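Researcher: I'd like a candidate sequence for this fold, 159 residues long. If you have to choose between options at a position, lean toward the conservative one.
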């Protein structure tokens, strides 16, 4: 399977990936998820995408392939307010709680990439946690740096 650089992350990802939305929204059976994901990994697909909002997706992916964690790049999404996640949408509390829940549900100790799910540019531009980064480039770059700091539990570098 061909691989390409995933932006400037240093990660190499397969040209095909697995999106976990249908697993949750279509109420796919665990047996089918196990077969599909293991076959994909066996064929060299290494990009697995999910989100807190994809009902059941994180849990099924965790049950199915957490034992193969070194075989794939795991992408999830956070930031949206939803049942079971404390904090207002896009707040530090909401993001942190979503990350913690994803780690538990996916049965892993790390996420390779965490994206802000459907966050509009206006929200990024007015966000207090992003304000120190506004001089560092695009809002997208700022969001990446904030998420990197949250995921690694490291303080953000000074602006």
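Model: Candidate sequence:
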């Amino acid at each position: 399977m061909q691989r390409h650089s995933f932006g400037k992350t240093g990660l190499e990802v397969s040209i095909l990936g697995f999106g976990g939305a249908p697993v949750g929204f279509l109420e796919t059976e665990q047996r089918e998820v196990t077969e599909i994901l293991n076959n994909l990994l066996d064929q060299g697909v290494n990009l697995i995408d999910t989100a807190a909002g994809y009902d059941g997706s994180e849990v099924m992916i965790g049950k199915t392939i957490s034992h193969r964690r070194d075989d794939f790049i795991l992408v999830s999404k956070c930031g949206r307010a939803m049942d079971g996640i404390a904090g207002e949408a896009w707040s530090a509390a909401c993001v942190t709680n979503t990350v913690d829940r994803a780690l538990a549900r996916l049965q892993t100790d790390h996420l390779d990439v965490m994206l802000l799910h459907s966050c509009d540019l206006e929200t990024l531009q007015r966000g207090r946690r992003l304000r120190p980064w506004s001089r560092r480039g695009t809002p997208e770059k700022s969001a990446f740096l904030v998420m990197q700091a949250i995921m690694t539990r490291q303080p953000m570098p000074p602006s």
